[in-house]
# Entry
Amino acid sequence: MKHLLSAGDLDRDEALAILDTATQMHAIQTREVKKLPPLRGRTIVNLFFEDSTRTRSSFEIAGKWLSADVINVSAKGSSVSKGESLRDTVLTVAAMGVDALVVRHHASGAVQQLAGWVDCHVVNAGDGTHEHPTQALLDAYTLRSRLGDLADRHVVIVGDVTHSRVARSNVLLLNTLGARVTLVAPPTLMPSGVASWPCTTSWDLDATLSGKEHGDVDAVMMLRVQRERMSGGYFPTEREYAIGYGLSPRRLDLLAEHAPVLHPGPMNRGLEISSAAADGLRSMVLDQVQAGVAVRMAVLYRLLSGAADSSTGSEVTV
Ligand code: NCD
# Structure
């Protein structure tokens, strides 16, 4: 594996190998000294053209715990604000002798395009409304930690699917791992091409959560309403959105006892998710953040150490 651009790039074996490597990486998160040597002498640049709290810091921690040198470049404060093109910026950074670029960009497809301009490894940390493969991997890691094997598990993803790169990457990866996915959104927030995605869809959250529409639910993943990507009125008022699609305390009670609640963050409390759901016993929101570091360590390790070239590449000396 040279790049990680899409969750669809991963076959079942590769995805499971990353998740297994992440389990080993997770073990060092609880240690006092959290450093492993495998990426010593390697340089990783986080190139972020969009805001980020958890993804960028988690990639930075992941690289540092593997002993790589990690540099952050963001559009604000770089020559991008002087009018430099994406290509010139990327070629300039890559020319410094970088081993991997971790890129977030507001245009769908931009990360895939720039991977063709450089020789180094490229990881997609979110491109527009398209993909966010490491988020899907950390979500799968979190779900497996609660549910075990995901084969035949039913995961319901709810909210602003139209503007979500998290939804698309999750549908692809969960499908690869054998899970069933139902997307629930108001018609205005369901993307037009969704019929070709490997999942079922619904507009009725109550019927889906109670298992009446597509069968029993094993997990619920709430999506943020991405107001910064909305140009018009996708729903009448926030109150009406919360009534129709928010994970309220009443809706939590529709879920089976074992079913966890996930949210990639940042959360709009009171809109797509109530505080009862975000902070309750089912909530795995902080487990997701913790898994993010382990999964990104696993991805960087497998890309940069060459582990992915061997058939039993999930072993790492921890
Ligand atoms: C997501 C993203 O940026 O796509 N957040 C994240 O990476 N943790 C989801 C979101 O912004 O709603």
Observations:
- Confidence is low (pLDDT under 50) at residues 308-313.
- Strands lie at 43-48, 69-74, 100-105, 121-127, 154-158, 180-184, 200-202, 219-222, 261-262.
- The chain has eleven helices and nine strands.
